[in-house]
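Section 4.2 – Deliverable D4.2 (structural model, holo form)

The reporting period included a commitment to supply a predicted holo structure for the target in complex with adenosine-3'-5'-diphosphate. Inputs used:
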Amino acid sequence: MCRTKLFSALNLSPGCFINRFLTSKCYLSVGRRLSSFHQGNVLIHDTYLTHKNQCFIKRRLLQNTSLLLLDHKTGKLLPNLPIVNIKRFVSHQQTTDQNRKRILTYATYFSCAIGAVLLTVVGAKEYKKLTRRARGIEKIAEPLLGRRKYLYKYRGYIYDEYIVDHVDKIHHFQIREDDVWVLSYPKAGTTWMEEIVYLIMNDLDIVKARSKIIEERIPFFEYAYPGFKAVTAMESPRIIKSHLPMSFLPKQIKDKKPKIVYVARNAKDTVVSFYHFFKMLKLINYSGNLNDFVDGFLDDKIIYSPWSKHVLEAWKIKDEENILFIKYEDMKKDISSVIQQLSLFLNRPLTDQQIKLIVECTKFDAMKNNPASNYSWMKGWGIKDDKEFLRKGIIGDWKNELTTDQIESIDKMVDTKLGNSSLVFEDK
Ligand code: A3P
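Output (structure tokens):
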């Protein structure tokens, strides 16, 4: 105890005592400064040993100094708490060194972690590139697409990144025999057909049809939302929408032969409708004009192109038992007959009354005013506020929009590509 220093600070408040103790003023009165206080024991009133104070003291006390406790009432050394050895408390200098060491260690760990993350990202990118190359996927720059400025060519068709990243998922997707697929090149009247098929398959349950948006009732197969998992989890019979060409449907389609309704629309109305769709989409941010878009359509720089290959693949197998090929123009001309055709194809017989009801529910204006099928849920974040998904819904709008040169170029492409087939569109 000879080297023990007792600071009697009973007249001071705990905070004041500790403060003065540590600022080496208080014990000046007993002739010692904290700096010279390198070894020995410090007696401190137990009341003052709040956690905060202890930590503070620990930081300041010198190595090999011990801490003794005094009973705050009697002022005597507490017998059961003899000496709290604080030898392990390091000097201020040591603490600084240790801090430096600790910072260095953390910095090393941190750089290792960053390095690992970077390596993983670069590695994953390289792996993706290699996998794509091995699959024959070609990357195509399309600056007009704004943020998403790349497209990918796979087996002769143009896709976005999400699709080429999920080639395996698509190929190996589990098909059910009672699935019904609604397929098309975009803007062919897919949504119209979906709504009709939904009503037929759901016994004309209009309440059910209005209870959920069409994207949830009939998921878009190769789109991130609701995604492959959601399609897998659906109850049978599932109705699934897709814009994939026949040659890129899941492999099991060939064996399980689910029913497939393919909708096609004439090239000129398709391209005009598609252009307006691109312009209304906030997600794409297309910066080109109609002329650029027509060029892109003809040069296969638009997703799901080439249009001609897409429609011809379906046309070639139109007579197979599980395929029904419908033209948008025929729907416009006589929708009742198309609904009749669909009811037979889907094995869901309909009365004339029921056909009339479906016609009413799926008229252009009815669907445009139906929040479950007009895509108004995408307004604001996906579709520009002043644009409508159900735009005009007519045959021949191309006459109002395309120049003579554009019409000639598209007609020429159609003649060249479809000329040898029996597929003809009445586009006026
Ligand atoms: P327009 O842009 O020419 O108006 P998809 O559903 O394949 O994206 O096709 C959209 C096109 O089909 C749009 O063409 C849209 O107006 C039209 N359409 C949607 N529902 C329709 C309906 N009930 N009657 C007629 N056309 C419809």
